[in-house]
């Protein structure tokens, strides 16, 4: 059994599917099923840096802790600026390219927005 979202107008839990639309039997409100899933997925995905600032694709961040690069002897030093980040799903929520190191994933808890 799939769980359908509550009606955005009257918050009724009795919404049902009618083709590609969702319908509320109590108030008669109709809305798109795809739109509500996309909005819910985007709202759930909020990535914050170490001090609580919301991060977005394309931001510039600064590393706040020396980070050892796994599998090599390289270290990303404190204060390294990383430009044009991309947010990703998973344990390391930032994909980026660091000069001198290459492409890598970072955790948002070790960066702050520049």
Automatic annotation (TrEMBL):
Family that this chain belongs to: Belongs to the YjdM family.
InterPro entries: YjdM (IPR004624), YjdM_C (IPR013988), YjdM_N (IPR013987)
Protein known as: Zinc ribbon domain-containing protein YjdM
Provenance organism: Pelomonas dachongensis
Annotated Protein YjdM C-terminal domain residues: 47-114
PANTHER family: PROTEIN YJDM (PTHR30305:SF3), PROTEIN YJDM-RELATED (PTHR30305)
Annotated ranges, domain Protein YjdM N-terminal: 3-32
Lineage summary: Bacteria, Pseudomonadati, Pseudomonadota, Betaproteobacteria, Burkholderiales
One Pfam match: YjdM
Lineage: superkingdom: Bacteria
């Amino acid at each position: 059994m799939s769980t359908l979202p509550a009606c955005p107008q009257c918050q009724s839990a009795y919404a049902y599917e009618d083709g590609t639309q969702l319908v509320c039997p109590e108030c008669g409100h109709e809305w798109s099923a795809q739109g509500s899933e996309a909005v819910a997925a985007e709202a759930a995905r909020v990535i914050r840096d170490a001090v609580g600032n919301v991060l977005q694709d394309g931001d510039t961040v600064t590393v706040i802790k020396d980070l050892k690069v796994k599998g090599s002897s390289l270290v990303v030093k404190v204060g390294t600026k990383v430009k044009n980040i991309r947010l990703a799903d998973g344990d390391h929520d930032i994909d980026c390219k660091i000069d001198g190191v290459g492409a890598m994933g970072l955790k948002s808890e070790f960066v702050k927005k520049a």
